TrEMBL record:
Enzyme class name: ligase
Motif ('KMSKS' region): 610-614
Residue stretches making up the Aminoacyl-tRNA synthetase class Ia domain: 446-649
Entry protein name: Leucine--tRNA ligase
Source organism per UniProt: Tunturiibacter empetritectus
GO biological process: leucyl-tRNA aminoacylation
Gene Ontology terms, MF aspect: aminoacyl-tRNA deacylase activity; ATP binding; leucine-tRNA ligase activity
Amino acid sequence: PQRYSPAEIEPKWQARWDADASLYAAEAHDSGKPKYYCLEMLPYPSGALHIGHVRNYAIGDALARHMWMRGYNVLHPMGWDAFGLPAENAALKNGVPPREWTFANIAAMKKQFQRLGMGFDWSTEVTTCLPDYYRWNQWFFLKMFEKGLAYRKKSKVNWCPECCTVLANEQVIGGRCWRHEDTVVELRDLTQWFLRITKYADELLDGLEKLEGWPEKVRTMQRNWIGRSEGAHVDFAVADGDAKITVFTTRVDTIFGATSVQLAPEHAVSKTFALEDDALRLKIEGLLAEQQKARETDELGAIEKHGVNTGRFAVNPFNGERVPIWVANYILADYGTGAIMSVPAHDERDFEFAQKYGLEVRRVIAPVDAPVDATKQKLERNTGILRSAQVDAEDVVGDLPYLAEEEAVLIYSGEWTGLGCVEAQEKMAAFAKAKGFGTATVTYRLKDWGVSRQRYWGTPIPMVYCDRCSPEEPLPVAESELPILLPEQIDITQTNGSPLGRVAEFVNAKCPKCGGVARRETDTMDTFVDSSWYFYRYTDAKNSRVPFDSDKANYWFPIDQYIGGVEHAILHLIYSRFWTKVMRDLGLIKNDEPAERLFTQGMVIKDGAKMSKSKGNVVSPDDMIGRYGADATRMYALFAAPPDRDLEWQEEGVAGISRFLGKVYRLTTKYSTVARMAVGGSRVESSAKEQALLRRLHKTIAKITQDFDGRWHFNTSISSIMILVNEITANEAAMDAGEISPAAVAEVFRGLILLLAPFAPFFAAEMWEELGGEGVVFRTAWPEVNEELAREEEIEIPVQVNGKLVTVVRVPAGSDEAAVKAAALADPKVIARIEGKTVVKVIVVPGKLVNLVVK
Ligand code: ANZ
Ligand code: ZN
Ligand code: ZN
């Protein structure tokens, strides 16, 4: 065509590419080449790609193409996270079975991927709802069951009334469902399957230190989610009875300051007391209701603290003292032991509570370097025991509790007095252990992963129940029975209970032990199981003997670059790290972590807001492609903002990119004949203009190469290409007049098109052909930087002191005033000349001169 026409170019090339199955295929693991595993998170087949996907995949695709050009064996696969609730909801709404809906969506989205020119290796496509994939979920589940990593227990679980299923803790965000921002999650007591992720808590935490290629914010989120706390368990005996209360404390060194024990409303001892006293029971129930309400709305941190004195006492094992037992609404049953010792002098929350109910406040730590006598006097004046009513908050809490543990010592703590806090924590825990009333311990916020879902469209859990031979214990099905197929004929219109429970042929199973009639488990697995290991399957997607061949996985893993949304920072990215460790311990792989580097791209927004149907600000990729082409759409997604920032989508910007490509098209077609003839020719004599143009080319190559090497400033990569093109335009007359040699013209245009190849693949392919380039453009070697040419040009600037020339400094051409001034002041001759004097003024004439006025 005469003019740039993406509507003609793009389908033409896509058809050619589609015909060549090996084009994007990775080479075998024993190819001997260095490997590069470039991976974007797989999409949920919702029906259509949104513009956020385009951004995500444009980043990954540019990287994959660049690595091909650098000579790597690249694995750049794609698949479908195809199980999940939307398929069921769509089925309920439109009467289309989930399977059909899902596969129709996959077909539509695959077309979009192709229309966008994404270079995926479809030969390793993974679709998680297919039995040849989910059978391995079941296989892993059996392995985990065997190792005690999968187990069933009754506990309080999160229930989304909208999803009609249980959710994992990680799927509850701010007390609401991760899928339903407006739906408050309820707590229900249910028996469910759990995966023992807590067994790996320490390794998941420690491993974060080594993940230097992951964004710090993701590592911090995971650290907080795991929430490791070192401390101690200490048993307080209940006076006048034989019950005991084990408290969890991170500050056992403050135990002489404990003036009450506080229980969660659901603590076993609270329940016993409640049984004995109706009035108390009602109050405890009230506290529990408050707590659950706060928990459901995620306002637990800000809960108005309430409590009730049970009238009973607990005995502090360190000094034999009796302290009152309270039940309080801010103590959680499922953290630590559900019981605490309350130390109002050194804990803010305890202080608040003590103030409210007039409990004792006792100081038991003081600054190391404070005059101990002064502290003592003050305490003695108060007989060491302060009624909270007598002191104001500042006096007690103002300084002491925030003392760094390293800088404080114990006071009024019996034989422990005088010890540093850190030392005391160790010694007191050891003492408790020796005496049999406690131990040092570690508590985590991380809980085991609840994976049972009361829904249809997921992986059946491969377990059965036999009342005859194993009434207590569920039984695993034999490996040879896998896959346990998800039935296709099913009525999912009723939403109470697991739909699989209504399919008799599914439920009725043969007992693997006694051969009698047994019942199949009817819950399905959380879909996050599917995405926990899918990227291993890509390395050997058709294996029907094992989940994947270990040699293949060991060649490709860890993933060199993983790219996806930050919304998965905790969910998918912690589950898949866990799964990797389990697979390693099963001997399947050698790596400890799935991905070496992680990149989380920013969101795409429109009119300053997240896109949503309700706001009516959704940008459709198809529209953009229709109007401006896939290349311009992709390139704009990379150009409009640094990849980690939010991007405000402006159609005018896409149009601008399209015009830019049009300009490159015009120039390339104009000079292609010259370039074709001159390839490989030598430059005889180089004009200044030619030097400058080549210098610009090599600076651009150097910059973009660096960007791909990890800086990822793709927005400025593209603007540097624009600067190069401007310079080419400015040299049109010179090229026409032969002032720039044909060999240089060829070098510049070939370089330009190779630089564009990762960002605008269709366009680059077309232009490469136009230039007479051989082979496939993104399998052509990435242009080499000529360091000599790429080097910043330097200029010399004379430096005067009080008008007299002292020296000449060299600075990069185009340096600003501040840089020139800094260079002048750092020059040894200048330093010697102005020593002992005051610089009163610095005059900089940019590009010309620096004059220092000194006195
Ligand atoms: C006495 C004490 C004195 C405490 C002191 C702190 C400071 P992290 O770091 O978050 O693990 N705690 C323990 N279990 C609790 C529960 N189920 N609900 C509410 N609070 C609980 O916090 C551990 C500290 O939080 C524990 O140490 C306990 O209070 C409280 F100067 O014990 B501490
Ligand atoms: Zn929900
Ligand atoms: Zn049986």
